[in-house]
Automatic annotation (TrEMBL):
The chain crosses the membrane at residues 148-169. InterPro entries: Phage_phiNM3_A0EWY4. It comes from the Bacteria. Pfam families: DUF1523. This is Putative DUF1523 protein. Keywords: Membrane, Transmembrane, Transmembrane helix.
Amino acid sequence: MRYVKWVIILLFWALVAAFLHYTLPQHDIARISDTYEKRIDPGENRWFWSQSASGESMSVTGRDVFFIQTRLNNDKVMVYRNEDTGWGWPPYFKFDTSNLQAEAADLRSTSGSPQWVVITHYGWRNEFLSIYPNAIGLRPVEGPDVRIIPWFNIIFLTLLVAICWAIYVRWRRFREARIDPVFEEMGDNLDDAGGWLKGLFGRKR
């Protein structure tokens, strides 16, 4: 049972880590090579797409989605989708998809004369599932080696760890003060009952 317990605990924290990695903002330094629009009809991967753009009907299944093609500073190709998050999840409250696409188009450059930008996004890129990270912001930078410190993630994760630790400490104190004494008393009562039954049946012999 100990192994089952630890497997469940590890699976739980792995899911939490995956959820945070997908949801929290990430930063890539890249050169925008092209921008385009494509008709998308989400299927089994619909969970990785926004439900609909802000102001659109939720009954629309297929829709046009903006994309931003880039080449990262490590020379790998990366493609981002550009969709509103609106009032849904994750709570980025992004409503400026068209403006962001116009900024991305204006910052396109070539390998001979690169314009490097920091692209803030969330999500994952997976070719097999045809899912793309969602760009939520971009800004030009001087070069591909600029240092980006993820202050929001640092503060958020620090607060999250502090909250989890506070909950754990309070639960442990509550268990030691209220729950453990009850189980100890139940164990003592069972021991007393067992001794009484043993004495009763022993006298009958």
